[in-house]
Amino acid sequence: MFLTLTALLLLVQAPPLETAKDSVYLKAGKLLNGTLLRAGEDEIELLDEKGEVRSFSRKKIKAMSGPRAQYAEFRERLQQAYSDRSSADEAFAFAGWCLAHGYLRDERLALWRALAIDETHEGAHRALGHEARGEVWLIPFGEGRQATWPDLMRQRMQAEQPWIFTTMHFALEISGPLDRAVITAASAEYFYGELYALFQARAELWDLRNPIAVRVWSAKDRGYPQADARLDGHWDPVTHVLHTWLDSTEGGIERPVNYERLLADAVLAAAAEERTKSPSEVPAWLRAGAGILLEEGTQWGSGLPACDPRLPAQNWIDRHAALSAPRSAAAIAIAAGAEFVGPRAEELRAQAYTLLHSLLYPEGKSFEKEFRAFLVVAFRNRGGGSAFSESFGRRLAELDKAWPERVQRLSRPSPGARE
């Protein structure tokens, strides 16, 4: 089902839109509307219209509909619309699908994606409210002003005139060329899906209701607020804004610096904060490990990146294997956040990554039950101190044997080592 251009125009001229509500149809004949917080294997959790969180067994549910209920399909369509092979018409069709299915925060980005592919796409221009003057499109810019396409492209490179985009889970301000700006925005939603695929079921995470703020600068020297000389990009836990900049050093394609790591930090922190209604205390090793999982498993190109966190990151495995005195799993679990930016940060990050990868993708013994027990308390801000040891109990000794053995088995011989 696709909306007409007239309907699109009315919607984009309306006040800022939010993602539509979800519906749960019970076998008993009752219809409930609200926000689907979690859709587990055995039960779901729904924030109803009265603001109460209600749980229902899957056995009592006849059907569910709404943007969160069909998020998996949304992600598939997102990947198609932002792939390096997609056409402007496909992006425009995705915008219509978003509106028809309640993804009201995502349709404008898809329209701009169409224009990033073909700046003359009439349907996208009209849907965004642009005015045609002969062969020139005039685009609303600032208070009562209009800009031509070339002027707009120049202005959006400036720090004070960023692109403003929204997705289901993010509010983004991005300075830079349109093609990279729309990919950067869509990538945030893509990585959100990857993180939730890893942790939502295991940790019983709720879908985020409050968008995460992201500010991407066109270059490090064009407005980026340096918070710590040791950090390239940062997630500010006080202002709740993620800051980074575009860089083309790796592979010649402009991409946001350390985006995967920063998004892991921001998303996992937000997940705990919304669940507990208090500042996040998600363990540092978990956030660091998740960031490396995404970063090392991601391939960037001209379109949406592709991520496979299952792929072992050889450099981090080798770094862990080379340590003369590695820490135990329990010691990694209680390492403070400051240690992950200190003089031994890379050693700790390597161990955090291999520990998390081993728990998520075991080759032999599985610690899934114990790991799930830990994640549930960790995302309720009770994952510090002895929580890791208590969750694994008697099996902690097994983990401390199986995890380093796996690292050594996967590592490459150091230069000069005898066969």
Summarize the structure.
It is built from 15 helices and 16 strands.
Structure description:
The protein has 419 residues and is α+β, with helices and mostly antiparallel strands. It has helices at residues 5-12, 71-81, 88-100, 107-117, 122-127, 149-155, 178-203, 259-276, 284-296, 314-321, 329-333, 345-360, 368-378, 387-392, 396-410, and strands at residues 22-26, 31-39, 43-48, 53-57, 61-65, 131-133, 136-140, 146-147, 163-166, 170-174, 212-217, 234-236, 241-247, 255-256, 298-299, 306-307. Strands 9, 10, 11, 12, 13 and 14 form a 6-stranded mixed β-sheet that branches. Strand 13 and strand 14 form a beta hairpin. The longest helix is centred in the middle third of the chain and has 26 residues, at 178-203. It is globular and about 75 Å long.
Strand content: 15-25%
> How does the overall form come out from the CA principal axes?
globular
Distance between the termini: 63 Å
Ranges where pLDDT stays below 50 over 5 or more residues in a row are 1-15
Number of strands: 16
| Secondary-structure-derived class | alpha+beta
Task: Report the average pLDDT across residues.
Answer: 91
Number of helices: 15
In which range does the helix fraction lie? 40-55%
Largest sheet descriptor: 6 strands, mixed
Give the topology:
Elements: H1 5-12, E1 22-26, E2 31-39, E3 43-48, E4 53-57, E5 61-65, H2 71-81, H3 88-100, H4 107-117, H5 122-127, E6 131-133, E7 136-140, E8 146-147, H6 149-155, E9 163-166, E10 170-174, H7 178-203, E11 212-217, E12 234-236, E13 241-247, E14 255-256, H8 259-276, H9 284-296, E15 298-299, E16 306-307, H10 314-321, H11 329-333, H12 345-360, H13 368-378, H14 387-392, H15 396-410
Parallel strand pairs: 10-11, 11-13
Antiparallel strand pairs: 1-2, 1-5, 2-3, 3-4, 6-7, 7-8, 9-10, 12-13, 13-14, 15-16
Helix pairs in contact: 2-3, 2-7, 3-4, 4-7, 7-8, 8-9, 9-12, 10-12, 10-15
